[in-house]
Amino acid sequence: MQIQVSHLRTGSKEIEYTLSLIECPRIKKPIIFNSEGMKCYCKVKDQGSGIFVTGNFSVFVKTECDRCIKEIHFEVSGELDLTLMPEEEMKESDTDVEISLNDSDIDYYSKGTIDLNKIFEDQFLLEYPLSAVCSENCKGLCSECGMDLNQTVCECSKKPANNVFSVLKKLQE
Fold it and tell me: Are 149 and 156 in contact (CB under 8 A)?
């Protein structure tokens, strides 16, 4: 969903819509949204010094456990509170630019258009866990035979693989 900044000059807009996975190109498999999609709500207001966007989102996802590859379902939700500035105001510099903590909630729009889909996609990616697991106690798969260690105990040898640091064990003796 896109909003023309020129339409905001008259005040604020409240927007509620559903975002599908197809509209989020940076969200890749194995993440799948439920059939209802991502519920998005935001209030967009032109304050003169910038466009302020506040809102929230919620979506139930289906994916694989990162340890045992079992199918898991959970909710990803979050809130947003952003200040949008015209891309033309972005400072171009040949040197490194220091970003303060206050600048972390600033984003830019271009050609007078705000792309809400991109904003909500960004927020989803920030809220999505780095490691999606079925439980904190998940033992994962055996690295030798591939058996699910949550279901059974495999018969593979438990001796560590030969590595370059194995000679250091001799120093302890």
Answer: no
Nearest partner of 114 among 33, 43, 20, judged by Cα: 43
Write the single-letter amino acid at 10: T
> How many structural domains does the chain have?
1
Please report whether residue 171 resides in a domain.
Answer: no
The answer as to whether 34 is a domain residue is: yes
Total residue count of the chain as it appears in this document: 173
User: Is 166 contained in some domain?
Assistant: no
Residue 21, sorted as left (phi over 0), alpha (psi -120 to 50) or beta, turns out to be alpha
| Domain membership flag for residue 159 | no
At 156-172, the pLDDT tens digits run 766 656 667 777 777 77
State both tokens at 68. 């045992």
From first CA to last CA, the distance across the chain in angstroms is 67
User: Domain range holding 50?
Assistant: 2-138
The set of residues, in sequence order, having a beta carbon less than 8 Å from that of 66 and lying 6+ positions away, is 131, 132, 133
pLDDT digits (tens, 9 = 90+) for 11-22: 788 889 998 888
Contact indicator for 77, 59 with CB cutoff of 8 Å: yes
- Are β-strands 12-19 and 113-115 bridged in parallel, bridged antiparallel, or unpaired? unpaired
Q: What is the mean pLDDT of residues 2-10?
A: 75
Higher model confidence: residue 89 or residue 17? 17
pTM assigned to the model? 0.77
